[in-house]
Amino acid sequence: MAPVAIVFGVALSALGGWLYYITDMVSPTALIPAFFGLPLIVCGLIAFSDGLRKHAMHVAVLIGLFGFAVPLWRVIKSALGENFAFNNAILGQITMSALCFVFVALCVKSFIDARIASKAKEAAARS
Question: Which domain covers residue 93, as residue numbers?
Fold first, then answer.
């Protein structure tokens, strides 16, 4: 899962850079996806260490969960407002939320697979 965290971190960082570029580099809030992507990259790099993998990936999935929920909440809040306009900010928030959702889903699947493998290993050791 470490490479997956790095890939999604790079994708979020690229999204932040792209959003910052298309807003003529005047809105630092366009870099918010990069602020989530950089810690994901760091967690992915730390996860290459066997002793720290579990902790790093749990932190990464927590970052991903916030990266999914916060922009989604902002899109819903904006959509329920009176002056809703589908613009680059909304597109960026939807994209960030979707990327983070996929990352969290992959992490949860990996955690479940690791638990099943651990239980199977324990059962085989008892036999």
Answer: 2-126
Query: Quick one: pLDDT at residue 105?
Result: 98
Taking only the tens place, the pLDDT of each residue in 38-50 is: 999 999 999 999 9
Domain tally, the chain: 1
pTM of the model: 0.91
Inter-axis angle of helices 2-22 and 53-79, nearest 10? 30
